Amino acid sequence: MSLPRPSRVRVEVRELSKTFAGPGRTVSAVDGVSFEVRDEEFVALVGPSGCGKSTVLNLIAGLQAPTAGTIHLDDRPLVGVPPVVGYVFQKDTVFPWRTVAQNIELGLAYRGLARAERTARVREAIHLAGLEGFEDAFPATLSGGMRQRVALMRTLVVDPQILLMDEPFGALDTHTKLRLQAQLLQLWLRKRQTVVFVTHDLAEAITLADRVIVMTRRPGRVKHVHEVKLPRPRDVIAVRETAAYAAEFGALWHVLGEEFAHAAPE
Q: What ranges do the domains of the chain cover?
């Protein structure tokens, strides 16, 4: 079953460039990047290490200012850190002195929600993440995958309309990564945020995304935009055993492999 594709553009990136200046050296991270992301669409950015994927994400989040180009969210120029955006970082970023429930509740408290509503939302988030029984546990007692689930739910519980994710499962083992990919897809099908997902894992990009944007080696540019034709909902394990998945992977690997072949060692 394929889900209908809304046409409203939520994120519009036009001719985006970012240059970092340091002592005696200037680095052009991305140059002339343009793409758009539609409402409720799941888009993955892939490319060689150092191609500027995370830089693009930070620019969309308002954490950095572009050197050139524009970013529009819902047809409005990006100014500062937009409240409609949630960000899940590469590291789990949970606070070690706060319990699971307290970590998840943090954003709700900052927004001034009443205690009763905070409690209800945290309870639902813990249920969705399969963390029942660990409400009062501290991060040091959790596995890496569980900590990343806490970080994910801390972002999702405030209901961001646009979700930015920077290689959130990159440091996890294959089994844990597949479990979290499956969980993310279930949550996304339920909440339908607009997602921009950075990954170095081509299999992950194909499994999760509606479209995959391939970036060149540094300075990063958009080389290819690929629409994933695999139907939804997707079983993250079973889908990889299909001929359709193999065809998607082969088509994208040809494009991405050219960049790996020419990328200079870091």
A: 1-84+161-266, 93-159
